[in-house]
Amino acid sequence: MLKTLGVCSWSLSPNGCNDFIEAVHQCKLSYIQIALDPLASGEWQLEAVVKSLVGANISICSGMMTTIGEDYSSLESIKQTGGLRPDEHWEPNLARARTNAKIAHQLGLDLVTFHAGFIPEDDANERDTMIDRIQAIADVFGEFGIRVGLETGQEHAQTLLELLADPRLANVGINFDPANMILYGMDDPATAIELLKNHIVQVHMKDAIPTQQPGTWGSEVPVGQGSVDWGHFFRVIQSLSNTINVLIERESGTGRIEDIIGAREIAVKHGCPQ
């Protein structure tokens, strides 16, 4: 079931909170997923942000946490540096999660999403380490009654499905991003969403086209100009028994507000409430 439609705060590349609020209003939206790290670092002051958002009638649906040292310059570099995988960043990432969990709790959130990193398919020991680390992050947020959602894309849907069958990850869901499946060259989004639908706790509305050169990134494009079948996407989400927020995400391009408005129009056309 669709709950509401919003936008990811980082998609708007805001220069401060006031600039962000103006951009959200230009997009004709009133719900957001907020990046927690600027609040944790003090770049954005928590009390001032909350006061400004309330005054602007903007509600926060969920939070997003990044991990340390991620290098997106190539598929191979992000495979080695992304998420919770690098041993040298594990303790700092756990500390970051503790800080972000407190902030998410202060914001009254019940969901935070993040990239776990590539899940090994052929190394049982490394896979077990990743499960332990995801569980540890989930436990940190769980202390505040907050669930976590793993961003899709870095692994095949079947690998992620098998991962979530582990009882240690009973409180872990999926933030389904159809474009990431294409960008990483992992799966067809239509097949993946059917396989993972019972674990979805939130979705990102983003589009992409596949690469023509294996081993390189696909290309993100405005929603409706890529390979995602949005009719099928929304039919699956509408069929779920739990309520799902749809957050528009745009991470490239120079006309992001226009692109987000275009995505909003497509979502509304498919029955997404605003």
Please, what is the CATH homologous superfamily of one domain? Divalent-metal-dependent TIM barrel enzymes
The total beta strand count reads 10
Q: Examine the coordinates and then state which fold CATH places here, giving the name of the CATH topology of one domain.
A: TIM Barrel
Query: How large a portion of the residues is in β-strands, by DSSP E?
Result: 15-25%
| Secondary-structure-derived class | alpha/beta
CATH architecture of one domain: Alpha-Beta Barrel
Query: Could you give a short account of the major beta sheet?
Result: 8 strands, parallel, barrel
Principal-axis shape equals globular
- Rounded to the nearest angstrom, the radius of gyration is 18 Å
Helical content band: 40-55%
> How far apart are the termini?
14 Å
Mean residue pLDDT:
95
| The CATH class of one domain | Alpha Beta
| SSE order | EHEHHEHHEHEHEHHEEEHEH
Strand arrangement, largest sheet? 1-2-3-4-5-6-7-10
Number of helices: 11
What are the low-pLDDT stretches, counting only 5+ consecutive residues below 50? none
What is this structure, in a nutshell?
With 274 residues, the chain is of the alpha/beta class.
